[in-house]
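Summary for the steering committee. One of the milestones for this cycle was to obtain a three-dimensional model of the protein with heme C bound, which we needed before selecting residues for the alanine scan. The sequence and ligand used are listed below.
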Amino acid sequence: MRSELTEFTGMNLHFRLFICSLFLSFVGWSQNRIPPLTRMDSEQAAANYQQYCALCHGEEREGDAADYAPSLKSKSLMSTMPLNFLASSIGFGRPGTPMAAYLDEMGGPMSMREIFTLSVWLKQIAGHEQIELPLDPIGGDLENGQLLFRQKCAQCHGKKGEGVEGPALANPAFLAFATDAYIHYAITNGRDETQMKAYNKELSEEERNDLTHYIRSLASGWSPEPKELAPYPNPEDYTLNPLGAHPEFQLKQGRYVPMDQVLNALNEKKRMVILDTRTSSEWHNAHIPGAIPMPYYISEMEVDKDLPKDGTWIIAYCACPHAASDKIINMLRKKGFENTAVIDEGFFKWLDAQYPITAGQMR
Ligand code: HEC
Ligand code: HEC
């Protein structure tokens, strides 16, 4: 068994995806037909959920703990999202949103097996029967769909569907897996116990078709690509500009440093350590130059390994903009690190401002 697993994990990503989809079509999408997890697998999945997901999706999977992350227990989502869609949302994330890729081949912390086990666990613990939706495309009036979208949906999903409080609907990774019927179902039934209400009364069937057709038109094509992963920095390179002076940061609420102060300190070659507290795959995509990966799911035991404890400023950032970095900074402060801060605006604002970044190596 072990050697089969090793062989499987060593395969090329596309081939493994192919295998997984074969496996899934063999057992069928229906939740009833997925064999129940062993107790050990369930316990491991529950622990992985708390370590990797609870920060944003909440300890009870209720959503909205940070970053407007969706509920992972709503009946509407869990009964309509097929297992391969769920697993790929976790493995490949939703590029350009705070939902990172967790698959090891994308630079994330989880194996394919762990991701599948977690997906099955999420379905089983939600306990809703799978609703089989048709695969046929839904046609509609594009212009009217766009008009309705601007009037009714853009305030939460963004003018171009880029996501605000509601998830990004124009997201290529979302649209690569979401069928028209899946989108239509979400509009019609909403997502129970979330901000997304059911539009079955407010909008006619035709209008919901128009909206679905419009959202589909935002697809741009996407397929997961494994990455050539950049090597992690050596501990001796953690401190930037070791011979430079200490920066003088003015913190808000004793914790948050505005990003322009960090940019100045970088430009003036000040001595500091920058921690990227996002999922490691995000560090591989792009990070602030010199930042070292210190993902929010690292244990308290390991968090300060190799960090200088001599008053050197330690600055953390995430996309959130605070949840992950706060968690790491809290751990460091508890351990007696003195000069620590969180970049107030977070990485997306840093990108928007076109401040410097280092891109990871892509294949
Ligand atoms: C008040 C804010 C709000 C408005 C208005 C709103 N949505 Fe949503 N929508 C959300 C949120 C929040 C979610 C995620 C809910 C969850 O699962 O936690 C969501 C989820 C969705 C999803 C499912 C996405 C997925 O990843 O599965 C679709 C599709 C969707 N909305 C379409 C629409 C359309 C079309 C409209 C306009 C008719 C609309 N929404 C209006 C907030 C909103
Ligand atoms: C840093 C915050 C964060 C963390 C940590 C996180 N997520 Fe997410 N997740 C999000 C956000 C935000 C979205 C919505 C993205 C968008 O706009 O499309 C999302 C979307 C999802 C979706 C798609 C749901 C839908 O309605 O379409 C799934 C499934 C999911 N996450 C599962 C997980 C799992 C499982 C983990 C842990 C392995 C995890 N997430 C960790 C923030 C996070």
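Key point for the committee: The pocket of heme C (ligand 1) is lined by residues 63, 70-71, 74, 77, 152-153, 155-157, 165-167, 169, 174, 183, 186-187, 191, 194-196, 199, 211 (CB under 6 Å).
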